[in-house]
Design brief:
Length: about 110
């Protein structure tokens, strides 16, 4: 009997704790779900000092999501907040490392 892996349904959780805003990506972020990620980021009230993108429950992260993270990094530099990405599971994180994004973005372990 072969088991098939089924990632969790896609979702984005948004939270705010003082000066920290957190956006958690759950499941597979692909071309179809990227708009939900973008909308979650846009829904954040201004005034945070740190934006945390939590990828600990992310099963797949498409290049469209990478573009969004790089845009957020540019925004952080211009607006004066820090962007922190909580590392994804090893298979997903490897893609960030191979693309050299570990040198462009601030990653933290979960």
């Amino acid at each position: 009997m072969t088991e098939t892996f089924h990632p969790p349904p896609f979702g984005v959780e948004v939270a705010r704790d003082g000066a920290t805003a957190t956006v958690a990506v759950i499941g597979e972020l692909d071309i179809a779900t990227t708009p939900q990620f973008t909308q979650a980021l846009a829904s954040l009230e201004p005034g945070y000092e740190e934006l945390v993108v939590d990828l600990t429950r992310c099963a797949f992260f498409a290049s469209s999501g990478i573009s969004i993270l790089l845009e957020q990094q540019q925004r952080a530099e211009h607006e004066g907040f820090e962007l922190v990405v909580i590392k994804a599971p090893a298979g997903v994180q490897r893609m960030f490392d191979l693309a050299g994004l570990d040198r462009k973005l601030t990653f933290r372990s979960p």
